[in-house]
Amino acid sequence: MNCFMTGATSTVGLFALRSLLGDGAVERVSVLSRSPSRFPLTHEKLTIVPGSLLEAGPWQLAVNGCDTVVHVAGIMFLPQLLPLMRTSAVQQLVVVGTTGVFSRFKSASQEYVHDEDLLRSFLTERPTVRCVVLRPTMIYGNPTGHNVSILLSWFRRHSVFPMFGDGHALIQPIYDADLAFAVVAAVRQHCEPAGFYNVSGRAPLTYRQFIEAIAAAAGTRPFFVHLPVRASAALFETTHRLIPHFRFDGEQVWRTTDDRAFDWSAAGAAFGFAPRSFEDGLRLQLERMGSSAGAER
């Protein structure tokens, strides 16, 4: 098996890459990197290909020599890859997409729907290509990432937290190593059974429970300031328009009220996917954050 991989410098990509390099059935893995000299791994099976998905270059030739493409960089970059695979020897394709495709907010879902439609058209043209699309929920685990890491940092300094609405919307984040497991399992099974699979954490939590768990991990008890959703969204939207550098808009307020819980049982049956609980994943993230801080010191 010769693989071409994108997104290998993400924590999901690195977890998956290490597993693939240790697989006896994998002969070579070529990874795309904008900074080859700083790539964090070396291995006799590993080839670092310089380049970016946003620019044409020699990296495009690397796709032709591979039978497997593992696309971790994000489904929004599929338009750069699919034309190359129309004339290549690729036999299987694993794509990390997003459950954002189901969002009731058009700005969050419209692009993802378009990219999935492009992929379906490609698979119709190339029916011999076996494909698995993994749709993760919010990914956490990266010590320097967004979402959970930012909230942990907040609660180490503050206890007050704004809660838009009642906090009863469901959320089901996935630990990055669990997503990497699903990626590798799909590759090892030669993308059988092919299809689209939602992958999430073990069980859903309410948004309030999610915040409370993070605050507890940071050693504090949150004091919620409940804010009306509609009025807050209007205020944020107006501020965003008047101050371009203001990072938040009204839709981001509304998204905290959006249910983001998804059943992963189909992936469990297909690939043996068995995600850990948010509490277990959060504990592991804290250990990784402690290790990073120690390395910096």
Would you summarize the structure shown here?
The chain has 11 helices and 13 strands. It is of the alpha/beta class. It has a domain at 2-139 and 173-201 and 261-276: NAD(P)-binding Rossmann-like Domain (Rossmann fold, 3-Layer(aba) Sandwich), CATH 3.40.50.720.
Structural commentary:
The protein has 297 residues and is of the alpha/beta class. The chain has a domain at 2-139 and 173-201 and 261-276: 3-Layer(aba) Sandwich (Rossmann fold). The chain has helices spanning 11-21, 59-64, 78-85, 106-125, 148-155, 176-188, 207-217, 229-242, 250-255, 265-271, 278-296, and strands spanning 2-6, 28-33, 46-50, 68-71, 92-96, 130-136, 139-140, 160-164, 170-171, 174-175, 195-199, 205-206, 223-227. It has a seven-stranded parallel beta sheet. A two-stranded parallel sheet has the order 7-10. It has a two-stranded parallel sheet with strand order 8-13. Helix 4 links the parallel strand 5 (92-96) and strand 6 (130-136). Helix 5 (148-155) packs across helix 7 (207-217) and helix 7 packs parallel to helix 11. Residues 293-297 have low confidence and may be disordered.
